[in-house]
Predict the 3D structure of the following.
Amino acid sequence: HRPERPPPPPAAPAYEAREFVVYFPFDQYVLTPEAQAVVQQAAEYAKGGNATRVVVTGHTDTSGSDAYNRKLSERRARAVADGLVGMGLNATTVAVDWKGESAPAVATGDGVKEPLNRRSTVSINFQ
């Protein structure tokens, strides 16, 4: 008959790599209140788990020229990255990338206003 061991301490919540998606209105890169809420969730998640790398990637739909959309997707990525840093994320862990209309969430023909493609993704990694 062995003495009973105390129960193990509860495990800390495991932070796993995760992606957040921030959506934008047509032809805009300002953060709407809904977008700001997602950026805040992403910032809190990244800070909570001490994220080592956060990659923000901007995207557009296929409406407009390719060159225009590359610039717009960069502005969307930078708006989200600035929001994350403004909420306390270390700027050195935040990288910015942009794809223009080249990597749509929803495949469409050219010139299509597709809300799900007007986005920035926030990929959070912990190692």
